[in-house]
Amino acid sequence: MWIIKNRVIFYVFSAILIISSILSLSIWGLQVGIDFKGGSAIEAVYKDARPEFATVDANISALSQTLNLGTYTLRPVGDKEYSIKTRFLTDTERAQVVGVFSNKGAIKVETNVSSIGPTIGEESARKAYVAIALVILCIVLFITFVFRHVSKPVASWKFGLMAIVALAHDVIIPTGAFAVLGHYLGYEVDTLFVTALLVILGFSIHDTIVVYDRIRENLNISHRDNDKKSFETIVGESVRQTFVRSINTSMSTILALVVLYFLGAEATRHFSLALIIGIAVGTYSSIFIASALLVTIQKWQDKPVVKNK
To answer: Which DSSP letter does residue 87 get?
Structure first.
């Protein structure tokens, strides 16, 4: 298939994106939210039905302009609760925020005010790193086990290794994109962003395994029929057979996320954007990178060794 034959072009394109992302992270870094750097958290529990989210969000947004709250996170919780996280607030500022939830005392509401210290924020960041590392480790072990009967021409553990290279590609690029968005538009990353990365990992590896599984099936058929197809040909056929399915699955998901981004709540907008970028990149890597890398590895290991006389 043309994808496998022109794999170097896609390698170069991915390399440009990855290098750009790493440079963005090195120069600007990520604008971390209060989940990681600390701040104030207020929970408002209503006795009766809670006000509409749009109304509360509009009032908080107006107050934010007055108090200069910066980036805040407002989320509905359950059926009768709202939760907001902001920078550290003074007692006067907290009272004003609570006043928005109670409509200046006109609505019965119980509030719980707490602070998220920098230490808790650092702990959250460490847990996020550990969660991503554990997910990647489990994926490698799973792929190695599932493809344990595949030994020729590429060993099963190399399937897992190439999948991890593709996953690193899928995490680095969205993270770099948020470094750019954070620098120019003030986008912050929080625990929802980490959740988005984990979802991206799951979505991407799902697509990759579908292609890898088809490669395994076609390898078995080729060995059974003794048709002597090259590994590159088999991989190309496998990608072609799964291409439409991967694109259709991803596009249907991305379309739903685009609707959520434009019509959903403000609290989930950055989450939706991270998923849109990550799923698009993950679909690209599953089709154009992960399988092509297997061919590259196979050609490297089969390259004849020239001995110096």
So the answer is: S
- Is the distance from CB of 199 to CB of 275 less than 8 angstroms? yes
Q: What pLDDT score does 309 carry?
A: 43
Say how far apart CA 17 and CA 211 lie, in whole Å.
23
Q: What distance in Å separates the CA atoms of residue 239 and residue 241, rounded to the nearest whole number?
A: 5
Task: State how far the Cα of 239 lies from the Cα of 260, in Å rounded to an integer.
Answer: 30
Distance CA 112, CA 97 (A): 12
| Whether the Cβ atoms of residue 75 and residue 67 lie closer than 8 Å to each other | no
Q: What is the third-level CATH fold of 39-116?
A: Alpha-Beta Plaits (3.30.70)
- Cα separation of 254 and 284, whole Å? 13
d(CA 111, CA 47): 11
- Identify the residue whose tokens are 């650092």: 122
Q: pLDDT per residue over 67-99, tens digit each?
A: 888 778 888 888 888 988 888 888 888 888 988
Give the CA distances from residue 26 to residues 13, 31, 178, in Å, rounded to whole numbers and listed in that order.
20, 12, 13
- Are 4 and 236 within 8 A, CB to CB? yes
Domain layout of the chain by residue ranges:
2-31+120-301, 39-116
Distances (CA, A) of 101 to 78, 90, 95, 106, 151: 16, 17, 10, 10, 62
Residues 212-239 as b/e (b if ≥16 CB within 10 A, e otherwise) read bebbbebbeebeeeeeebebbbbbbbbb
Query: Judging by DSSP bridges, how do beta strands 188-189 and 73-77 pair with one another?
Result: unpaired
Q: Is 96 helix (H, G, I), strand (E, B) or coil?
A: helix
Contact by Cβ (8 Å): 116, 38:
yes
Q: Which CATH superfamily is domain 2-31+120-301 in?
A: Multidrug efflux transporter AcrB transmembrane domain (1.20.1640.10)
Tokens 């790493």 belong to residue: 22
pTM recorded for the entire structure: 0.80
